[in-house]
Amino acid sequence: MYSDIQDILYSEEQIQDKIKELGECISADYEGKNPLVICVLKGAFMFMADLVKRIAVPLEIDFMAVSSYGNATKSSGVVKIIKDLDVPVEGRHIIIVEDIIDSGLTLSYLIDVLERRNALSVSVVALFNKPARRTVELEPDYTGYVLPDEFVVGYGLDYAEKYRNLPFIGILKPEVYSS
Ligand SMILES: O=P(O)(O)OC[C@H]1O[C@H](OP(=O)(O)OP(=O)(O)O)[C@H](O)[C@@H]1O
Ligand code: HPA
Ligand SMILES: [Mg+2]
């Protein structure tokens, strides 16, 4: 598994340091608001678990599973809801937790769904942002690291469901997905 990685972009320690900073910003902004924090499965599962430990205000959590990449390295352009939320979002302050924003299609779709369900506010925290690949305009409210235009894996992110358990984020060797 490790031999399929070309370069490590951010180590486990760098990721944890960044999450601490993000948690502090979110804690300050959401004082007294009891936000509903939504994890976008599967990719954001690790980030969600580490982030909520760093948010120091009362909150609730829920999960939504969506997919648009399948076994490819480019978005299919069609976002499918595989699992919906368990609770209504009407009147709630929502924080969407994403591992990565690439084309922006997943998030623009989700924000639209949540706004149509009358959320009071919707903000986005993304650990990784790949602005070079955007096809729809979208800027997260809280960003961890900006990434180059490369397909990355680890810390929750997969290629064909593999590599999610790597503790760091790295560039996958192109021969792995082109072979
Ligand atoms: O900005 P975009 O181009 O839409 O890409 C970002 C989305 O793609 C990945 O999910 P994926 O659809 O691969 O599902 P997964 O989280 O189950 O891996 C990732 O976890 C984000 O949710
Ligand atoms: O670079 C990526 N890696 C894994 N999954 C992804 N989903 C969007 N971009 C990526
Ligand atoms: Mg994926």
UniProtKB/TrEMBL annotation:
<dbReference type="InterPro" id="IPR029057">
    <property type="entry name" value="PRTase-like"/>
</dbReference>
<protein>
    <recommendedName>
        <fullName>Hypoxanthine phosphoribosyltransferase</fullName>
        <ecNumber>2.4.2.8</ecNumber>
    </recommendedName>
</protein>
<keyword id="KW-0328">Glycosyltransferase</keyword>
<dbReference type="InterPro" id="IPR000836">
    <property type="entry name" value="PRTase_dom"/>
</dbReference>
<keyword id="KW-0547">Nucleotide-binding</keyword>
<keyword id="KW-0808">Transferase</keyword>
<feature type="domain" description="Phosphoribosyltransferase">
    <location>
        <begin position="8"/>
        <end position="159"/>
    </location>
</feature>
<keyword id="KW-0479">Metal-binding</keyword>
<keyword id="KW-0963">Cytoplasm</keyword>
<keyword id="KW-0460">Magnesium</keyword>
<comment type="similarity">
    <text>Belongs to the purine/pyrimidine phosphoribosyltransferase family.</text>
</comment>
<comment type="pathway">
    <text>Purine metabolism; GMP biosynthesis via salvage pathway; GMP from guanine: step 1/1.</text>
</comment>
<dbReference type="InterPro" id="IPR005904">
    <property type="entry name" value="Hxn_phspho_trans"/>
</dbReference>
<dbReference type="GO" id="GO:0016757">
    <property type="term" value="F:glycosyltransferase activity"/>
</dbReference>
<comment type="function">
    <text>Purine salvage pathway enzyme that catalyzes the transfer of the ribosyl-5-phosphate group from 5-phospho-alpha-D-ribose 1-diphosphate (PRPP) to the N9 position of the 6-oxopurines hypoxanthine and guanine to form the corresponding ribonucleotides IMP (inosine 5'-monophosphate) and GMP (guanosine 5'-monophosphate), with the release of PPi.</text>
</comment>
<comment type="pathway">
    <text>Purine metabolism; IMP biosynthesis via salvage pathway; IMP from hypoxanthine: step 1/1.</text>
</comment>
<dbReference type="Pfam" id="PF00156">
    <property type="entry name" value="Pribosyltran"/>
</dbReference>
<dbReference type="InterPro" id="IPR050408">
    <property type="entry name" value="HGPRT"/>
</dbReference>
<keyword id="KW-0660">Purine salvage</keyword>
